[in-house]
Amino acid sequence: PSRSFHGNNRLLTSQIISYYESINQCKKELPEYFNFASDVLDEWARLEKDGRKPTNPAFWWVNDEGEEVKWSFEELGSLSRKAANVLSGACGLQRGDRVIAVLPRVPEWWLLNVACMRAGIVLIPGTSQLTAKDISYRLQASKAKCIITSDTMAPAVESVLPGSQFLKSKLLVGQGSRDGWLNFKELL
């Protein structure tokens, strides 16, 4: 049995299974360092650019109103590099630093996930249903140096900031601005 994905090469189930079996039996060499953003995303973008892979969306988001955001592999790669530069530049983060993202599932949520992978920054995802107490606990337990949130969650975050001794930067994803916060869209 085989399956086709968007007209690409047919992938045989038995080939996929044998590939994973070879990894489990230590017959396949695994890279010492693996980075999804550079080893997979950038490679797919290169294959698309060289015409060796048909162009398919790497990311396709649709909200309740029918608005769409669609990025190719090349666009997602480029945007994630810019977002990684925002995190390491404006936010002052380094490889191994922790970031808490308290965002609804907007396109920036996925973009920041890939950017953190690319930069070696540890992303701690949080749902927008977190309370101020939940956020405070996560900030202290994780020793996060940055928090990323939306306009609507910013007041809950600000209410617990006096007790967050490790926090260096606050990044806002949204249209508005707040005193003491960096605006992600402007920096991107």
From TrEMBL:
Keyword Ligase: yes
GO terms under cellular component: mitochondrial matrix
Domain of life, source organism: Eukaryota
Record domain AMP-dependent synthetase/ligase: where: 52-173
Gene3D superfamilies the record matches: N-terminal domain of ligase-like (3.40.50.12780)
SUPFAM superfamilies, alphabetized: Acetyl-CoA synthetase-like (SSF56801)
GO terms, molecular function: ATP binding; fatty-acyl-CoA synthase activity; medium-chain fatty acid-CoA ligase activity
Keyword Transmembrane helix: no
Reactions catalysed according to its record: a medium-chain fatty acid + ATP + CoA = a medium-chain fatty acyl-CoA + AMP + diphosphate
The entry's keywords: ATP-binding, Fatty acid metabolism, Ligase, Lipid metabolism, Nucleotide-binding
EC top class named in words: ligase
Biological processes, Gene Ontology terms: acyl-CoA metabolic process; fatty acid biosynthetic process
Protein name: medium-chain acyl-CoA ligase
Entry's EC annotation: 6.2.1.2
Similarity annotation: Belongs to the ATP-dependent AMP-binding enzyme family.
